Amino acid sequence: QVQLVESGGGLVQAGGSLRLSCAASGGTFSSYTMGWSRQAPGKERDFVAAIAWSGASPYYANSVKGRFTISRDNAKNTVYLQMNSLTPEDTAVYYCAADTKWRTMGSLSAGEFDYWGQGTQVTVSS
Questions:
Q1: Could you give the CA distance from residue 121 to residue 38 in angstroms, rounded to a whole number?
Q2: What does the pLDDT look like over 88-106, one tens digit per residue?
């Protein structure tokens, strides 16, 4: 069983930055693809980004490409999401997720992860 705990959310003004962290335990973190998704009020959960076990070839949703950066530290069992140039449209609960089945990025972008964290709220004020 994999446990994921997000942190780093909060309130920020438009144009600002935040860095989210997700600490994993209970599994073999270094072998998992990790990702982030978000859910805005009244909307479905949307894929944001994913990163393979090696840290190579990160994959982003078009809506965040060029503004967000996903990274990981396998020694710390932690994945990060650096968010820059935030807009009110980025307001959402952000969820960390783990894929233990070597899915394709296409499947992961459709939300096919095995484990999810509880989420951390990000609010961007205009």
A1: 9
A2: 999 999 999 999 998 998 8
